[in-house]
């Protein structure tokens, strides 16, 4: 069964989804949905879902209850991108010479949105498929709170692999400065990206980051087109925060030393 | 006397005086209404782009200016000669200046505090051992609230003269955890465990990286500083969770956090201090043997 399609639950039926390390259960009782979740060590490339017996649900979990107007419509899970920027490091230290360009692929764990309703769906809850640690992008006086990705920004992706709990984000980095670009970290504002679904994977629209040199903010360009790495990509979720096509932001992190004071 | 009072009231309530009073009432009412409207527009217009403090200052400037203009208009209606008033004010000013030195100092200090932007409304500051949240920066003083909900008024002059620590100026802070481990512990393993705890704690930021410093060889153990970076709103949550996690992990891994202690030697590094357990019975001192029997010394 398809993880991201609408499911109609029967009364007192329990349904389970396994999306990455996230296990999600839902039950329908009268006019309310009960939803609970847990992070486990079991993880597969492709998500799984299906009805289970209620005694298979671990006992110590806390259920959230949602009273809905039309419970018969069913619930749907939607893949979304995180609500904050993510910081990622290239898999190997890399130097981008002046006037050159490189494309990196960043795998981002999905945020699972549980929705219900027909047409305009209402969001019941949202939960990350993987708990990401917090990190700070910037210096100790200014900056922004981001998620730290344990995955790396890679130059290639495995074309034949199907992974539907990670969104692959193509990031094109261009160096328009006069010096080589030697960066350790890259900040990607995923809250401005959309989610597309191909046959094998989830994708975001392409981000172009142009380095202007020195400590200047980078120019960020968000593509309006569908990603063309896979045929038949369809839009499944819009960006959380719409932005103009091109903005200026600090995107690159270099080696910084923090002075220690007693 | 009653007749005299009645006559003076009758003289006052002449048509021209009633007209003046009506004009003054109209000036005051319309003036107050206009001032309120201007303040409302300021609040709405500045809400999105300016800080709470800037909006508050703008409101006070408009309010005091408006009151001053209303006062001038009222005095004009009463035919008070403003030139003479200003002259008298000059002399009065000197007298008031001497009497109001502290207040003037507070007012001037207030302007400097605002222009320096050392802190703003909503910031948490520490001054002279007092930690509080700024509620407003006013003409003479700063109003604040302590964490146990007490109201504090701090004269501006005091703030200008004192060292003020703005705890929430920057978005992130470093929380320093001081601990000590026994001399017998493997410092490499201690470092790994502490950094692992930091990495797993949801409030601890992975960048800037946690700091591990061996401070000194203390009297009872090796002193360590663990510096953890956290978003300023999560400081308390991190402090509570990390202390518990360190204790639990150290207990689990058998890493000793030593009590303060002193080792006493007899003069030779290897010989133990001879210790005899004795018991007094019938006025005599008896030594307790290993098999718990008593032997006379």
What does this molecule look like?
The complex is a heterodimer of chains A (262) and B (297). In chain A, 0% of the residues lie in helices and 50% in strands. In chain A, the strands form five sheets. In chain A, strands 9, 14, 17, 18, 19, 20, 21 and 22 form an eight-stranded mixed sheet that branches. A five-stranded antiparallel sheet of chain A has the order 4-1-2-3-5, with no helix packed on it. Chain A has strands at 14-19, 22-29, 32-39, 48-52, 64-67, 75-80, 86-90, 94-96, 101-109, 111-116, 122-128, 133-138, 143-153, 163-175, 181-183, 185-188, 195-197, 201-204, 207-211, 218-222, 234-237, 246-249, 252-253. The termini of chain A are far apart. In chain A, strand 19 (207-211) and strand 20 (218-222) form a beta hairpin. Chain A is mainly beta. Chain B is of the alpha+beta class and 297 residues long. Chain B has three domains: 12-99, Helix Hairpins (Orthogonal Bundle); 114-166, SH3 type barrels (Roll); 172-253, Alpha-Beta Plaits. Chain B is 48% helix and 22% strand. Chain B contains eight helices and eleven strands. Chain B has helices at 2-12, 15-46, 52-77, 82-99, 101-116, 156-161, 187-200, 235-253; strands spanning 124-127, 130-137, 141-146, 151-155, 164-166, 172-181, 211-217, 222-231, 278-281, 284-288, 294-296. In chain B, the strands form three sheets. Chain B has a five-stranded antiparallel sheet with strand order 4-3-2-1-5. In chain B, strands 6-8-7 form a three-stranded antiparallel sheet, covered by helices on one side. In chain B, a hairpin with a 2-residue loop joins strand 9 (278-281) and strand 10 (284-288). The model of chain B has no long low-confidence stretch (mean pLDDT 86). The chains are: A mainly beta (262), B alpha+beta (297). Chains A and B meet through strand 12 and strand 13 of A and strand 8 of B.
């Amino acid at each position: 069964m398809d993880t991201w399609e609408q499911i109609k639950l029967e009364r007192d039926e329990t349904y389970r989804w396994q999306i990455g390390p996230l296990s999600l259960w839902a039950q329908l009782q009268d006019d309310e949905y009960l939803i609970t979740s847990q992070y486990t060590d079991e993880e597969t490339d492709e998500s799984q879902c299906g009805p289970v017996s209620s005694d298979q649900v671990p006992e110590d979990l806390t259920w959230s209850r949602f009273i809905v107007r039309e419970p018969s419509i069913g619930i749907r899970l939607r893949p979304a991108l995180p609500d904050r920027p993510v910081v990622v490091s290239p898999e190997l230290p890399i130097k981008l010479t002046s006037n050159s360009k490189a494309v990196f692929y960043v795998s981002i764990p999905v945020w699972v949105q549980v929705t219900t309703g027909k047409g305009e769906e209402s969001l019941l809850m949202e939960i990350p498929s993987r708990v990401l640690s917090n990190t700070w992008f910037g210096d100790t006086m200014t900056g922004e709170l981001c998620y730290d990705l344990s995955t790396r920004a890679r130059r290639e992706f495995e074309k034949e692999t199907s992974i539907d709990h990670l969104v692959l984000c193509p990031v094109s980095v261009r160096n328009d400065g006069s010096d080589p670009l030697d960066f350790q970290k890259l900040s990607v504002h995923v809250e401005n990206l959309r989610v597309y679904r191909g046959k094998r994977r989830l994708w975001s629209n392409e981000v172009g980051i142009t380095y202007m040199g020195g400590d200047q903010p980078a120019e960020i360009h968000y593509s309006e087109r569908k990603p063309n790495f896979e045929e038949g990509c369809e839009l499944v979720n819009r960006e959380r925060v719409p932005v103009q096509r091109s903005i200026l932001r600090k995107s690159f992190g270099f080696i910084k030393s923090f002075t220690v004071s007693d | 006397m009653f007749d005299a009072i009645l006559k003076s009231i009758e003289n006052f309530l002449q048509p021209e005086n009633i007209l003046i009073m009506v004009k003054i009432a109209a000036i005051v009412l319309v003036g107050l209404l206009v001032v309120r409207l201007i303040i409302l527009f300021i609040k709405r217009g500045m809400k999105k782009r300016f800080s709470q403090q800037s909006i508050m200052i703008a409101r006070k400037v408009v309010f005091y200016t408006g009151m001053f203009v209303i006062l001038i208009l009222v005095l004009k209606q009463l035919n008070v000669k403003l030139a003479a008033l200003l002259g008298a004010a000059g002399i009065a000013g000197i007298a008031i200046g001497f009497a109001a030195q502290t207040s003037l100092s507070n007012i001037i200090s207030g302007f400097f505090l605002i222009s320096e932007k050392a802190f703003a409304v909503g910031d948490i500051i520490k001054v002279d051992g007092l930690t509080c949240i700024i509620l407003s920066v006013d003409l003479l003083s700063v109003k604040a609230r302590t964490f146990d909900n007490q109201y504090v008024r701090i004269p501006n002059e005091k703030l200008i003269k004192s060292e003020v620590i703005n705890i929430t100026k920057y978005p992130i802070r470093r929380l320093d955890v001081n601990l000590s481990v026994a001399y017998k512990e493997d410092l490499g393993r201690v470092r790994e465990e502490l950094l692992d705890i930091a990495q797993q704690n949801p409030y601890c930021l992975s960048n800037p990286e946690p700091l591990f410093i061996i401070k000194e060889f203390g009297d009872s153990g090796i002193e360590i500083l663990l510096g953890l970076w956290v978003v300023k709103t999560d400081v308390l949550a991190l402090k509570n969770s990390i202390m518990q996690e360190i204790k639990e992990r150290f207990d689990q891994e058998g890493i000793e956090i030593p009590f303060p202690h002193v080792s006493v030697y007899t003069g030779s590094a290897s010989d133990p201090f001879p210790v005899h357990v004795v018991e007094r019975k019938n006025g005599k001192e008896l030594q307790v043997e290993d098999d718990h029997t008593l032997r006379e010394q």
